Amino acid sequence: MADIIEITDFNDSALDVYVRLTGAQLRRRLEPDRGIFIAESPTVIDVALDSGCEPISLLTEDRLINSDVRSIIERVSKCTLDNGEAVPVYTASRQMLTSLTGFELTRGALCAMRRPAQKTVEEILRGAKRVAVFEGICDSTNIGALFRSAAALHIDAVLITPTCCDPLCRRAVRVSMGTVFNVPFATIGASPADWPERGLKKLSELGFKTAAMALSDDSVSIDDEALMKEERLAIILGTEGDGLSSETIKKCDYTVKIPMSNGVDSLNVAAAGAVAFWQLGNR
Where are the alpha helices (DSSP H) in the chain? Predict the structure, then answer.
């Protein structure tokens, strides 16, 4: 049975991961190459557990212990910490938890989990035919939505540049509905200086043609026959507003646009990604 603990002291250090640590501090909370992330909602927690993520603790509303969160508690109770102790389940009223976290919990549950071991670019691209590359996308909602589309629309792997938002930040994980655990991802480059030149060179060495999603006079349509026939293709998307850097566009094999109508010049990056993944994904 899980170790259920009623919260009586907001200053308990065990609650730091939920209320007092920044995203950067969570990433470094354990060993530097792993850290902690927060999964929000029973659905997302289930997906994270299915993918092998290790729970550290659970925070939930007391009224949900025997209903919405019961199955999560049962799953967590089968796990143990490194010291052999049971994974603690912290609980309190909705009002108290809202005061504690500063926001209403989505369906009443947060789970602190160890970050999965990082993978290399070479590892996740082995056998991949279609990969998405996110350049400098810093909005966590867009990152989460892009991962959900990548998982649903036949993208084999995702690469993020060093200036991107962390895919395992709380909001990105929630918006993705846990699909960040279903699509292999890695950071391409150790520092911002590694992108785009070194990163694009690595993709070329691994046999990928590169397609920059951008508005340009010399772009090809997303349904271009030669583009769609490429055996291995990296679809590169830039941050909201500014889009891809001119250097990235210049160095890619293709510049690709989605034909627009009704005077609309472009789509939100998450919507553009969904269209691109459907058209160019590994179907």
Answer: 16-19, 23-27, 42-50, 70-76, 94-101, 121-125, 140-152, 170-175, 197-205, 225-229, 246-251, 269-280
Residue of 179, 182, 181 whose CA lies nearest to 113? 181
**Cα distance between residue 47 and residue 185, in whole Å:** 16
**155-179 pLDDT, tens per residue?**
999 999 999 999 999 889 999 999 9
Helix axes 269-280, 140-152, angle to 10 degrees: 20
Q: CA–CA separation, 202 vs 207, rounded Å?
A: 9
C-alpha to C-alpha distance for 154 and 132, rounded to whole angstroms: 10
pLDDT of 32 strictly over 50: no
- Look at 283 and 163; give whichever has higher pLDDT: 163
CA atoms within 13 A on the CB side of 21: 21
- 3-state secondary structure at position 69: coil
Of the chain, the end-to-end C-alpha distance in Å amounts to 44
For residue 8, the tally of other CB atoms under 10 A from its CB is: 8
Q: What is the distance between the alpha carbons of residues 247 and 225, in angstroms, rounded to a whole number?
A: 25
Provide the mean pLDDT of the chain: 88
* Pairing state between β 109-114 and 88-92: unpaired
**Structure-token pair, residue 94:** 């909705």
Answer yes or no: is pLDDT of 26 > 80. Answer: no
Q: Which two tokens stand for residue 131?
A: 């990969």
